[in-house]
Amino acid sequence: MLPALDEERTIGAIVAQVRHDLVDGARTGGQRLVDELVVVDSGSSDATVARARESGARVVLREEVLGEFPPLPGKGEVLWRGVAATSGDVVVFLDSDLEDFTTDFVLGLLGPLLTDPDVALVKATYDRPLRQGETVLPAGGGRVTELVARPLLNMFWPALAGFVQPLSGEYAARRNLLERLDFPTGYGVELGLLVDALGLVGLDGLAQVDLVRRKHRNADDAKLGAMASEIIQVAMDRLARAGRLRLDAAPASSLVQFTRVGEDYAPHVVDVGLRQRPALVSVPGYIAAAERADSSP
Question: Does the predicted TM-score (pTM) go above 0.85?
Answer without folding.
Answer: yes
